[in-house]
Design a protein that fits this description.
With about 110 residues, the chain is mainly beta. Helix content is about 10%, strand content about 30%.
Length: about 110
């Protein structure tokens, strides 16, 4: 489904600027969980989907189940898998190192345009 459909159901507050995705997968031996974000404009883009099915079947774990993000305009690290929680936020200040995602906190660019 388009991510916009889900967002319309929750009616984001006016101060929401980003969609934060929190994932079940641990990224290191310390158990730090993966997290990623996209801006609200990108979340409403027609090519941004919240995938929970593939070929009319439940999305398999190997492909990121339960649901995963697909943003066809950005590189793969922006396409969060194993999503367990979504949050609409105004900024990243209190999340990780404040750069908008796990890999961004490691030095990657926040906008990962293809």
């Amino acid at each position: 489904m388009r991510l916009a459909v889900l967002l319309d159901r929750v009616s984001p507050l006016p101060e929401a600027r980003y969609v934060m995705f929190y994932c079940a997968n641990a990224m290191n031996l310390s158990g730090d969980k993966y997290y990623e974000s996209i801006d609200l404009d990108g979340a409403y883009h027609p090519q941004t989907i919240f995938a929970y099915e593939m070929s009319d079947q439940a999305l398999p774990i190997a492909h990121g189940a339960p649901p995963r993000l697909r943003d066809e305009r950005q590189l793969g690290y922006k396409m969060a898998k194993y999503i367990i929680r979504i949050e609409l936020i105004a900024d990243f200040a209190q999340i990780g190192d404040g750069n908008g995602g796990y890999w961004e906190d490691q030095g990657y660019e926040w906008w990962a345009e293809i």
